[in-house]
Amino acid sequence: MMLSFFLAMAMATSERPALPGAAPCPAATRQKLLTPAKPGEGAFPLNCSITLKRGENIARPILIEGEQASGVHLDCNGGKLTPGAARINVRMPTLAIWSRMAGPGRWSRPEQVLVERCAILGAVHIYGVGAGQKVEQLVDASRKADFTKVAQTAAPINVTIRDSRLTAINNIPLYVGPGVTRFSLLDSRIDGKGTLAIYLDHEGGWNRIEGNDIDFEPRREMIAIDGSAHNSIRGNHIVLRGKAAAQIYRNCGERSVIRHQAPTDNIVTGNDFDYIGAQPRVLVGQNARKGRSPVCGDDAGYPFGSSIDDMDHAERNQIDGNRVRARR
After folding, report:
1. What is the pLDDT at residue 4?
2. What's the pLDDT score for residue 16?
3. What is the gyration radius of the CA atoms in the chain, in angstroms?
4. What is the rounded CA–CA span in Å between residue 233 and residue 218?
5. What DSSP state is assigned to residue 170?
6. What totals of helices (H) and strands (E) does the chain contain, helices first?
């Protein structure tokens, strides 16, 4: 699955044409991007397209934000993207692809973003409402009946990461935030260790996790599908160390945000699960939360979603055709 990635890294290529909507980066921007960040510097805003030359690396967090970043194409050509001197966290991941508030009730979101052939150390966050740990935005929006529609309209759409490697530093290497739709992780590798490898958060959907190698040391399940729907997890090779490959559920009451959408119509099929040690008791779990949380009552008082019903309602999910074997 990683063959195309390693072959691509070995090839020296010239600058590729930008995707529609994002011009190639000018020389000055390129120079700044490739200069390691100083302690205390924020993320570097990237609104143009760039292909690194072989041997070039980026040692600073990157922010691809708002509609002005639509069409950005970041091709590391096998190079590294690291946080450098910055300390990564939820407010500044290694790579942030975020929407920003453009006015009352209005959001500016990036679309058609492509990241490829990058070795990313740390965390990638794709996020709309609530980006940068602005939880109050999510709380306020979730108090209205159209929350799912609002979250999906606000969030980045059609973002693709392919032929890349995501290595965690005791964190979640890939967080697909509330309302994100049509994100794809393709033909890539996730390794390192942390809470879990991939989190698909509430109100999002139609995301693809396909053709990847995931050899990660999680404290929980490998992939969390929390109130996200219509996702496709196919053709991946996942190494398990006593934990589930995926759990499908819906949180309730967490940070007082009402979850509206149930985790339905997801597809987990055609994957290879290799386990080390004992085979996990559950490979792909459904209704894993079952309303069992001390904070479930924190979103009470509204006539929809987890405010009136703490159960997961993981329904119509297709889980079949996966192969399980002991790793030798």
Report:
1. 45
2. 41
3. 19
4. 18
5. S
6. 4, 29
**Which pLDDT does position 328 carry in this prediction?**
75
> DSSP letters of 85-118?
TS--BTTB-SEEEE-EEEETTEEE--EEEEEES-
Other CB atoms within 10 Å distance of the CB of residue 93: 29
Cα–Cα distance list, 100 to 132, 146, 195, 210 (Å): 10, 19, 27, 28
Residues of the chain with pLDDT under 50: 1-19
Structure tokens at 23: 């011009």
What is the rounded distance in angstroms from the CA atom of residue 265 to the CA atom of residue 157?
19
Q: Where are the alpha helices (DSSP H) in 193-250?
A: none
Residue 23 near residue 73, CB atoms below 8 Å: no
Q: To 5 degrees, how large is the angle CA 47–CA 51–CA 53?
A: 140
Alpha carbons 149 and 101: distance in angstroms, whole number:
16
Distance of CA 4 to the CA centre of its chain: 21
Comparing CA positions, the residue from 75, 54, 53 lying closest to residue 62 is 75
CA distances (Å), origin 158, targets 20, 28, 148, 171, 253: 13, 28, 17, 24, 29
Question: What CA–CA distance (Å, rounded) separates 19 from 5?
Answer: 20
Nearest to 222 by CA among 194, 203, 201, 202: 194
Q: What is the pLDDT of residue 208?
A: 98
- Residue spans of the domains in the chain: they are 3-326
Neighbours of 156 (CB within 10 A): 29
